[in-house]
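note to self — DONT lose this again. spent like an hour looking for the file last time. sequence + predicted structure for the chain T wanted, 176 res
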Amino acid sequence: MTGQLGGTVVKDRVDACGLDTYYEVHGAGEPLLHLHGGFNTIEMLGGILPQLAQRYRVYLPERQGQGRTPDRDGPVTFQSMAADTIAFFEAVGLSAAHLVGFSDGAMVAIHVALQHPDLVHRLVLIGQYANPDGCPPFYAELMEQLTPDSFPPCSGRCTTRSRRMGPSISRCSSTS
C-alpha cells in the first residue's frame, strides 16, 4: 500500500478472483465503490472524484485488461466482471458499499446487486440501459461495425484487451 486514507491516496493491488487488480482509494467516510466504463480507467472520474472523496471513501478498481489490471485468458463478460467485483469486495474487506457504475460498469453493478444485494447500500447506474430495447438503432449498427482497428485511439492507459475486445462486448447484445 502506498498511502493512507484521509488526504493521501491509497494505491495498491489485490488478488480478486485470481486477477491481480489495481485499485485506488480516495477520501474518507462511507464506502463507495465506483466501476469505470468500458475501454477506460479510473482516471475517467477526473473532475468528480474530489467532490466524491469529500463525503465518501471511494474505491476505484480497474477491471480485467483495462488500465493497470492485466488481462487473462478467456472471455470478458458482465458476469465475469461481476464475479471479479464481488471478489474485490471480499479482498479489500468491504462488507457493503454504495455501488456506482458508469456505462459497462453500470451493467457490472446490476449483476453484482442481483447476485449479492447484501453488498449494496445504494445502487447508482449512469449511462447504461438495462436491456437491449434501450439501444438506439444507430448505436447497435455502430457496435456491430466496431473492430480493434476502427476503434479510436485509447487515451491514457489502455491495454491489449481494450484494443482487441471490439464487438465482442456489444452493449446491444442480450447475451452479454
